[in-house]
Amino acid sequence: MINAYNTSEIILYAFAGAVLLHTLLVLQMGGAEVVTVSPVAYQMAQDLVHYRAAITGGLIVFYTYLRLSKRPVAKVLAIVSIISWIAFVEDYLALDNIFFVSESTTGLIVQTLRPLYLMSIVYMAVEAYRREGSHG
Questions:
Q1: Residues 121-136: pLDDT tens digits?
Q2: Considering only CA atoms, which of 20, 113, 97, 112 is closest in space to residue 60?
Q3: If 0-12 CB within 10 Å is exposed, 13-18 middle and 19+ buried, where does residue 64 land?
Q4: For residues 52 and 88, is the Cβ–Cβ distance under 8 A?
Q5: DSSP of 20-54, one letter per residue?
Q6: Span 66-85, mean pLDDT?
Q7: Is the N or the C terminus of the chain less surrounded, counting Cβ atoms within 10 Å?
Q8: What does the DSSP 8-state code read for residue 98?
Q9: Among positive and negative, which fits the CA dihedral 47, 50, 55, 56?
Q10: End-to-end CA distance of the chain
Q11: 72 with 98: CB under 8 angstroms?
Q12: CA-CA distance, 74 to 43, in Å (whole number)?
């Protein structure tokens, strides 16, 4: 049975997969200089791609491990949620043309899924705290 939590989880994995695919394709095309205009934005995009992908991706893998082993996941989801929202605000304030209309299909998919992902990850964290609080 698919409920709102499972739907949110599907969105989380779809977004993570889209980001991974888009990142690999951008790197294959020549890196962040392909999608940025200024040298400062290029350096920031390079750093953000590597560090954010490693941190957020690692936490999502950790979440998956905890979920499969039936351990508490609320704190990990809360951390992923906070990092995701900070990254979004940071992108909005700092990066050139963050709301550009992407010419690549993978970029467009990431842009489309990001608001759904942000809402889903917050819902998942709140729901996980509610579930874990009622059982423990």
A1: 999 999 999 999 876 5
A2: 20
A3: middle
A4: no
A5: HHHHHHHHHHTSGGGT-SSHHHHHHHHHHHHHHHH
A6: 93
A7: N
A8: T
A9: positive
A10: 24
A11: no
A12: 34
* Residues above pLDDT 90, as percent of the chain: 37
Per 3-state DSSP, what percentage of the chain is helix, strand, and coil (rounded to 5)? 80, 0, 20
Write the CB contacts of 125 (distance below 8 Å, at least 6 apart in sequence).
74, 77, 78, 80, 81
pLDDT at 71: 95
The per-residue pLDDT for range 27-64, each reduced to its tens digit, is 776 655 455 555 655 666 666 666 777 787 888 899 99
3 state SS of 76: helix
Cα dihedral 9, 15, 20, 23, rounded to 10, equals: -160
Instruction: Give the Cα separation of 98 and 36 in Å (integer).
Output: 10
Separation between Cα atoms, residue 117 and residue 41, nearest integer Å:
24
Kindly report the number of other CB atoms within 10 A of residue 6's CB atom: 11
Q: What is the reported pTM?
A: 0.78
